[in-house]
Each structure stands twice: as C-alpha cells, then as structure tokens.
Amino acid sequence: KLFLDRCLVAFEEEKLTEELQENQTEEMFLNIKDDSDLPQPKLNAELQKAHHQQFEFRDKQIINCAFPGLVLGVQDANLRAGTEVVLVEKKPDDTNQRWVWRDHDRTFHLMSDPNLVLAVSMPSTQPKYSKCALDMKGCAVVLQKYKEYSNGAANQKWHYMENAGVFSAFYSTVLDQEITAANHVSVCTFSVTSREKIDQPGYCFLSPSGKQKFMICLACARAIRGKKELKKLPTGSMFFCASGSEEANHFSLGPFKCVNVMKTDLSTLEAENTLNYLEEVLASLRTETSIQTISEKISAAMNQKAVKIIAYRNGAGYQNGQLIIASTFPMLLTMCTRQLELTRKACRLYTSDGILMLTLPDLVTWAVNECFRQSDSEEDYKERTAITDSAEGGAALHTEDKYMEKAKIKSELSLMTPDSLNMIDDSLLTIILRNPIEVWVSCGEPFLPLDALQKAARQEKQNWLEKDKILADLDAMKHKMRQLQGRRITAFKPSTLVPTKSPVQPVVVEGGWTEETEEEMRLMENIQHTETHFSEVQASQFKRSSPFSSKLLSSKHRCLYDQPSAKRVWAYRNGYKPEQGVYAWGKTISELLDNCTTRLNMQQPAKALYTPDGEPLQSWDEIERDMLLCVSAGSPFLSRRAIKQQVELRAIYARIRKQQGPDATNIVVSPSEKLKGQKGGIALAVSKQVIPEEQ
After folding, report:
1. Nearest 5 degrees, angle CA 503-CA 509-CA 510?
2. DSSP 504-531
3. Which residues form the Doublecortin domain (predicted)?
C-alpha cells in the first residue's frame, strides 16, 4: 500500500512538474514582477525526494533513476535471511547486485542464492489495547527465504511499474495479506478463514492415541511449541487450523489466552465489529477491576450487617434447626452445608411461605416486610373489632368494605424492596433482625411444604394400621378354616357311590370326609380376596418413590427421590433347573432379553419369557422385582419332565440304530387297501414296525 501511494504521488508530482515547467517558461517570457509567490524551493525538494524513490529494472539490476551509478544490492559477503538490502555502487560482475524476476510468483530472487528473495521486513508488534494497523512506513527491505505458499508470503510479492519506475510491495490477494499479518502478530488463521481449506505454512502433530492427525497454523505452533512433537507440513498442504475444530477442546490449542478461537471472527467483513466488541468487554473488565469499584464493593460489604438465621433441611419441617450467623450470602450457604451435614452443597434458601432467597438483602427485606405484616395484622384486627362493635346491619357491611380496601392499599404501600432498605432507621432494623430468620435449605430441589413430613408420617401410620387390620382378619379366617377342616376330617363321614351312564366314568364318588363343605369354600374365597387386597396394599407401599405422598405435594413439585425403573430378576434357560440361573437386569422387556442373552451365554438371542408354570409374559408390568423367569430363544415352554422325555426318546432312537442298523428306523407310509376306494378317509400302514411300544 505504501509503494502504491508513492506511485500515485510520483504520477501526480510528475504531472505537476510538467505544468510548472510550462508555467515557468511562460512567466519568464512575460517578465513576471514578483518571483516570491512561486513555491519553487519546496516543490523542488519534494520532487527530488520522489525522484530518489524511482528505480529501473534493467540487465537484472535495480538501478536508481536519480543516481544511475547506484543499484540495490547486498554489501555483506555472508548471505543469510534478514540481511538488509541497500544502495551500493554499481558493479557489472557482482552477483549480489543482480536479481532474477519470476513473473508467475511476482518475486525477485538474488542471483547468487536463488533461495533468497527481496522482501519487506515486517514491523515489530507491541501489545496495544487500541485500534491500530501495522505501520509499514520506514520498514527496511531485506533478504528472506523464499516461501512457496499461496498464502502467508505477501511481503515477498512485488509489482514493477515500468512507466512510473516504481516497485509496489504486497502485490497479492487480500487473503494472502491477511494470512501474512495473522502469522506475524500470532493470530490463529482460523479466525480469518474459518473452515475454508487454504495453502498456508503450518505444522502437524499426532493425538496421544496416535490415530488422529492435527494440522495447525504458525501462530498456534508457536503457542504449543515444546508441548507437542511438531512436524512441518510440506508445501501445498490444504488445511484449516485445527484450533477451531471440535476436537481442539481436549488439547488446549490456540494462541489466545482469554479468547475462544471459534468465537472470534476476524474476517474482512467482521474484523471491525469483533474488535469493537472485544474493546467493550475489555473496558467493562477494567471497570469491574478498577480500584474505585473494588473499594465500593469492600465498603458495601463492610457496611453489611450480620444476619442470624435458623436453618432447617428442606422437607424436615421444624426439626433439627441450626443457628447460623453470617455477613455474606456465600458464607451463609457454606455454613448451612457444614452444620446441617448436607450430602451436597447448599444453593437455595426458602422462607416459610416458599419464597426463594438468592441474596442477603432479599432475606433482610423479607424479614422487614414480615415484621410489618404481623404488626399491621394485629392493629387491623383491633381496628376491625372496634368497627364491628360500633356499627350495625348494612352500615357494618359498608364500613367493612371500606376497611378492606384501605387495608389493601396500606399493605401495597408498606411493601419494602431491597433498594429501599436505606430508608429504614438503623435502630429499627437492628430490632427487627434481633430475632433469627427461619429458612429452609435446599441443594437444588424445589421447596416442600412444612407440614409434608407430618402428613407423610400420619399417612404411613394409617397404612400400617390398615395393613395390621388386614393381617389380623386374615389370621382369623385361616384359623377358622383349620377348625372346619379338622372337624370334617375327625368326623370321618363315608362317601356315597353314585352310578352314572357314562362309559368313561360309570361311578362317581360324592360326599365323604374328603369333600369340602360349602362353608369352607366360601371361607376360602374370602381368604383369597383378602390376600389379593393385602398384596395390592403392599405393592402400593413398595412402589412409592418418595417418603412424601404425591397427594400431599403440589403437582408442580417433583419427588426428591425416584424409584429406579430397572428391575432385577432371576433367569434360567428353558428346560434347565432354576438353580442354574443368574441375575439379569433391564428397564424394558427388550433390554431384559438382551441382558439374559449375555448373562446366560445363549447361542441364539432370547425372545420369550415364561413363568415357572409356563405362562408367557407379554408386558413389562407383569414382571416384578426378584421374579423367577424362564428364558426361551423362541421354542415353547419345556418343563423338566418334557426334557427328560426328549432325552429318553433320543437315547432309544440311538440305541435301536446301533443294535439293528440304520435301516431299522426307516418307516414307509402307504394308504390302506381297505380304505382306498372310500371317499374322505385314508389309513396309514407301516411296512416295518420295530420301534418298541414305550417309544
């Protein structure tokens, strides 16, 4: 930009010089009276200075136009990167004065060492907390190692304007200039390009597992140098800096100490807005950490009076209260956690009416309003009693309405806020805060009513009484059942044989001491109903997820503890003994089947669940905790007896084939000769029958 400005100045000065020379010639012939009005000395100095900045590239030499005997070259014989390029005396045989121009790269290479190119040295950067750009004015022209990257080497790109005799530096794209500036001032290039992959200098390193490769820019490589084993990327590597990727959170990449790379947009269109935002944040941080702000906070903390409270656990009612005195709210929470022996850190305080307290002034304000409300209620009661005694009939109703409206307005006007605490007299505030404030400490759960514990205890006692009554009735009915059975057996009444016409069962036994009476059957039915009712009561008590009944709590309050939905069962394989089972867990039937497959080492996945009696289980509600289950891979339920029969059948089959040969078990089925002609009937005849009857 500097050289481009100089080029424009050179064009303007050249044009101005021609015009002035023409004007001077005309004025000399017209006998100008006063020559002091012409700005000739100042103009000549500026023209001379601009003329010294004009060069000509001829015969691979950069020759100064004002002094053709001076060219750009290097005086030091020990060539290295960083050597300053100066005007030296022209020598045709000195290769340190000759340059090779590469048009496609827009670079000037030193003939004696083509790896060194003509470049502008970047200015030194100092931490400044204000809007500023890199000041390129006065920067030296030096030798640098040639960078083959498309972005990040803008200070090596030149443009030679032959007509103007000017060399313009930084003749490259805007992206190349931004990447060059970002690498110089240690700004991550992800802030400039985001996730666009570009050709830029960088390094790479492997993750601790060695499976993932991270590519980072020069600024990030400087930040983690010495912490990771870095390897330089080859030329032509297209990538974006890994500091902006999601995996970078595990490795603390990025050159910034306080700013997140992913949230910092320094692209061409958003750089100004980002800088304004960061300056505002910095100004606010300076304000917060200023001596005046800190002194105000310290004075406010010193003026804050200590507050006494009686802390109870949330949901414990008025049991086991602890007296705590503190002057700050964090200290109050810390002491509540310690003295109440909470398992988690206390984070909320509730008053008796369920109002959440988050600061100490809020707590003091609530105490003041509560004190005023109590005093007003006493005065209003006395005033209302006096009005009721003095007035009669309709006048009493009208007076009471006026009184209620007046009391409502009075209560609204007397409501205090934390900002209006300074209006209260210190002596009055001391008297109000003399008595400790009752609060209920919570670890994050919502407020529970104060009478919830007492109601829960009463409900539990009622449940136990109901349970005891059911057990007593059940024991009485079972005792009566035993008495009836004993009397029937002791009587030893003979049974009656009744003939029937059925060929299957010609004689039926009726009566006798083995047959139950009607009274016993009715009593047995009552016992079964009572046991069912008792199991339902037990299930309802067992499934309670909280020590407080859900009916006692408001619908917006959730339970402090939820019963886990996972169920544990004892599972065994279909056809095996229950003793050969294992424990299995699950929250659903599918999850329980998968766990049974793994725990029982089944070759096929489990697909069905049965009770020990062979009843299939279809829904999750039918499965109870610690239940005995039979697991099947899809085959029907098999009892131990069925398994034994299958084993015996296989043994007989194998024994016959071993004793009489493989053909002994071959069976040929053919239709019967008698029923061949009959319609609708087919009989099967066995040509060889060697299988025993028990099979």
Report:
1. 130
2. S--EEEEESTTSPPHHHHHHHHHHHHHH
3. 562-643
Asked if pLDDT for residue 609 goes beyond 90, the answer is yes
Among the listed residues 521, 560, 350, the one whose alpha carbon sits nearest the alpha carbon of residue 440: 350
CA–CA separation, 194 and 179 (whole Å):
12
Q: Which two tokens stand for residue 189?
A: 């290039």
DSSP string, 595-612: HHHHHTT-SS---EEE-T
Backbone angles phi, psi at 32, to 5 degrees: -60, 135
Identify the bridge partners of residue 569 per DSSP, sorted by sequence position. 584
Model-wide pTM > 0.70: no
CA 95/CA 60 separation, integer angstroms: 10
55 phi, psi to nearest 5 deg: -130, 160
394's enclosing H/E stretch is helix 394-413
Q: Copy the structure tokens of residue 372.
A: 């005023």
**Which pairs count as long-range contacts for 306-310, CB under 8 Å and 24+ apart, including other chains?**
307/332, 307/360, 307/363, 307/364, 307/433, 307/437, 308/433, 308/435, 308/436, 308/437, 309/363, 309/436, 309/437, 309/438, 309/439, 310/436, 310/437, 310/438, 310/439
The alpha helices in 226-316, defined as continuous H runs, are 271-288, 291-303
Q: Which one-letter amino acid corresponds to residue 186?
A: S
**Distance (Å) of CA 551 to CA 327, 455, 500, 544, 554:** 39, 10, 62, 12, 7
pLDDT the model gives residue 476? 93
Q: pLDDT at position 570, please?
A: 92
Phi, psi dihedral angles at 2 (to 5 degrees)? -65, -45
CA gap 105, 115 in Å, rounded = 13
Residue 406, H or E segment? helix 394-413
